[in-house]
UniProtKB/TrEMBL annotation:
SUPFAM superfamilies membership: Cytochrome c oxidase subunit I-like
Entry keyword annotation includes Membrane: yes
Domain Nitric oxide reductase subunit B cytochrome c-like: 36-216
Matching InterPro entries: Cyt_c_oxase-like_su1_sf, Cyt_C_Oxase_1, NorB_cytochrome_c-like
Annotated protein name in UniProt: Nitric oxide reductase large subunit
Domain of life assignment: Bacteria
A GO term, aspect molecular function: heme binding
Keyword terms, alphabetized: Membrane, Transmembrane, Transmembrane helix
Organism this protein belongs to: Rufibacter radiotolerans
GO cellular component: membrane
Presence of keyword Plastid: no
TM stretches of this protein: 6-24, 228-251, 284-307, 329-351, 363-385, 412-433, 445-466, 478-504, 516-539, 545-566, 586-609, 629-648, 660-686, 716-737
One of the GO BP terms on file: aerobic respiration
């Protein structure tokens, strides 16, 4: 394939995809659920104002936001989805009141015909859109005002300290007095009402709600729309067609067998002398290892909160380190250590590729390291202060907890990190530029390396596109730019380029083949991946067109993952073809594991929840962390480990590694991850899906369902996989420390000389 055609294809995909993303993003702005200036009853009483709702959103963010329960299905999974829960409670208030007036009993005790009549009356009243855009007023009935007051009273007792609701707080892993101020609580109730109002109120001129009839709730007439079912079918057709076309491409462009005679006879990297800046990256990997251990420890505590809501084996931990904090730190540290491993690898590879050490490069690497430590410590401390309700609304936004999963850190820390990423990009450009002048054939691969590096810095900036009072639908749009495009998109491209660079420098891939492969893979991945961002936004207050695009292009995201086995097999062959490569066995094994988890975690478990009809019932259930753990850690985390091991191998010079501990760590981590998912999280998610289909999301997330003996047993079974995984992480940390102390290394011996002696013995 000609490079020119590939570059044109890459440019076309980027320009076309972002044009679509931008245009429909403007539609999300235009058609987001409106925030009324005031909510007024039929008798003229003002219940809430726009400022109440906006402040209430800030209160919700300050207690952890999406790290404590969820809104519109996005967030944590132990506490309820507050929108689905509020909607059900509000509906039952209406129905029980009418049932009492008509028959003197509760709604559940009525006959079928009377129930149907009252449900029809409820739907007629509650689904009607009574918002007047001219005056900015939302008119509600006096009875609905009573319903709001009734649900608000329940939530006030739950989030504060009503002893009668202590069992609910324990089941939901909420500390007592999660919200400490009654004024703040009233405003958060205003936000919860508005978010649930968007779930049940029909868009002007349509018969679907602002959230496309999500969540499933028969009482109010929330059922799957015809568009949802049609686009589900279309996405499956697109998936099958895409797999067929890509399979045809692979068959017609069969990869040539690796010519062993052309491979280097000894390690080409043995003669590589680490520059001062390359050596300075070592400390990054020590921090990566330390953060990984802390992150997993917090994950264990967070998982345990699912069975003992306010304590850790009897110790009252929630008052000091509540669930919303441990989960926040668990997620945030995962992003930190994975990104740090990848960025440090870039800093190591850039001078190695160019053979040039810019002036003050080491100083820049060390300065960036200090900035990183300040960001980690500062952002985590700010989140704790925010959740413990020690910050005001603006203070929390800037320095505390923003409440949006994966981008929880305060705005100041977001900006600080963005500056750090641009400093990293500057250091990368300085180090790599000489290679452009020297390597004519390799310029295309270097170009992709720099583009992917620039994208990592640029796309983090999407997290600055919302403000303190931005409409939640708009904030979700930009949040997924960060989570999907930054984490799942351009980090993936960066990883593909880095692995290609490693294999080229080791003499295992020709630069022409590597360049063509990287460009083609990037085009295929981004063609579905950029617009596929919309599959996260089916039910987040977005128009139907977003669902159509998300369903179609997210199916295309899966296409390259289905055939990822070719990549795994290729890497496995490389690990076996010559003896000196044994020195890089564990980094290459990590790359093989990445291919496996790409197929299973991102492909199989991703598509399990991607089609609209599946996500309609599964959004906000434990089927999401099945995909999250196997894709985020299985793909990006294991790749971060592999890149770390590759660099550590380069920095440990000619000494051979002992296999025992690192072998145990590799297999324990991967087996533990598989068991965690297969014997606990996935069965819980599937049982919740059954409950969601049959009764609604409110029930699938309720205490009454989640605290049954069966669900309790399944949660405890997670201990098996978690323990194996955690022991593997401990072994990995022990091995990394041992590279410094020497206990992970064999006696001083040149790898190439060792291989040569083995060859001589074989000849004799």
């Amino acid at each position: 394939m000609k490079y020119k055609k590939l570059w044109l294809g890459f440019i076309a995909v980027m320009v076309g995809s972002f044009a679509v993303l931008g245009y429909y993003g403007s539609e999300i702005y235009r058609k987001a659920p409106p925030i009324p200036d005031k909510v007024v009853t039929a008798s003229g009483k003002t219940i809430f104002t726009a400022q109440d709702i906006k402040d209430g959103q800030n209160v919700w963010q300050s207690i952890g936001g999406q790290e404590l329960g969820s809104i519109w299905g996005h967030g944590a999974y132990v506490a309820p989805d507050w929108t689905a829960d509020w909607l059900h409670k509000e509906a039952m208030f209406f129905l029980d009141r009418w049932a009492q007036e008509a028959k003197g009993t509760k709604f559940d005790a009525l006959d079928v015909e009377t129930k149907a009549m009252l449900q029809a009356r409820l739907q007629q009243q509650i689904r009607a859109n009574t918002y007047d855009p001219a005056t900015g007023t939302l008119a509600i009935s006096d009875l609905r005002a009573e319903a709001i007051a009734g649900v608000s009273e329940h939530y006030t007792g739950l989030f504060m300290n009503d002893p009668a609701l202590a069992k609910y707080r324990d089941a939901y892993a909420m500390k007592d007095n999660t919200v400490q101020d009654p004024v703040r609580m009233r405003k958060m109730n205003a936000f919860f009402f508005w978010a649930s109002w968007a779930c049940v109120t029909q868009r002007p001129g349509l018969d679907i709600t602002y959230t496309n009839n999500w969540p499933a709730e028969e009482l109010v007439g929330n059922r799957p729309s015809s568009d949802l079912i049609i686009w589900t079918g279309f996405s499956v057709i697109v998936l099958i067609a895409g797999i067929g076309l890509l399979a045809f491409y692979y068959a017609s462009n069969k990869e040539e067998e690796i010519d062993i005679e052309k491979l280097p006879k000894e390690d080409p990297l043995l003669g590589l002398q680490a520059t001062p800046s390359m050596k300075a990256t070592l400390k990054y990997f020590w921090i990566v290892t330390a953060l990984f251990v802390v992150q997993i420890t917090l994950g264990v505590v967070t998982a345990h909160y699912g069975v003992e809501g306010q304590a850790l084996y009897g110790f009252d931990l929630a008052n000091f380190l509540p669930y919303s904090i441990t989960r926040t730190w668990h997620v945030q540290l995962a992003i930190f250590w994975i990104a740090t491993s990848w960025l440090a690898t870039g800093l190591y590879i850039a001078p190695a590729v160019s053979g040039y050490e810019p002036k003050f490069q080491r100083l820049g690497v060390n300065f960036l390291f200090i900035c990183f430590l300040i960001i980690v410590v500062g952002s985590l401390a700010g989140q704790w202060y925010g959740v413990m309700q020690k910050l005001g609304y603006a203070q929390n936004f800037w320095f505390g907890h923003q409440g949006y999963e994966y981008v929880d850190l305060g705005r100041f820390w977001q900006i600080f990190l963005l500056i750090g990423l641009f400093l990293w990009l500057f250091l990368m450009v300085l180090a790599i530029l000489p290679a452009f002048r020297r390597e004519a054939e390799g310029r295309h691969l270097l170009g992709m390396f720099m583009i992917s590096s620039a994208a990592i810095a640029l796309f983090w900036a999407a997290g600055l596109m919302w403000g303190q009072h931005t409409n939640l639908a708009v904030a979700e749009y930009w949040r997924w730019w960060v989570v999907h495009l930054w984490v799942e998109g351009f980090f993936e491209v960066f990883a593909t380029v880095v692995i290609a660079f490693l294999f080229v420098r080791m003499g295992l891939l020709e630069v022409k083949l590597a360049t063509a492969t990287v460009l083609f893979s990037t085009i295929i991945f981004l063609f579905g991946g950029i617009i596929g961002t919309f599959h996260h936004l089916y039910f987040s207050g977005t128009p139907t067109s977003v669902m159509a695009l998300g369903a179609t292009f997210s199916a295309l995201e899966v296409v390259p993952l289905v055939l990822i086995g070719f990549e795994a097999y290729h890497n496995f062959k490389i690990s076996k073809i010559t003896q000196w490569i044994v020195a890089y066995k564990w980094p290459i094994y990590c790359f093989i594991a990445v291919a496996f988890w790409n197929l299973v975690g991102a492909g199989v478990f991703g598509f399990l929840i991607n089609p609209p009809i599946a996500l309609y019932y599964m959004q906000g259930l434990n089927t999401t962390p099945v995909h999250g753990h196997t894709a985020l850690f299985g793909v990006y985390g294991v790749l971060g480990i592999g890149l770390m091991l590759f660099v550590l191998k380069g920095l440990s010079g000619r000494r051979r590694w002992k296999d025992g501990v690192i072998s145990f760590a590799f297999w324990s981590i991967n087996i533990g991850l598989a068991l965690m998912v297969l014997i606990s999280v996935l069965p819980i998610g599937l049982m919740q899906t059954w409950a969601s289909v049959k009764y609604g999301l409110w029930y699938a997330r309720s205490m009454e369902f989640m605290q049954t003996d069966t669900m309790e047993t399944l949660r405890w079974m997670r201990v098996i996989g978690d323990t194996i995984f955690a022991v593997g992480v401990g072994a990995l940390a022990w091995f990394v420390v041992g590279l410094k102390t020497g206990w992970s290394l064999e006696e001083d011996e040149d790898v190439a000389q060792s291989v040569e002696r083995k060859r001589e013995k074989m000849v004799r």
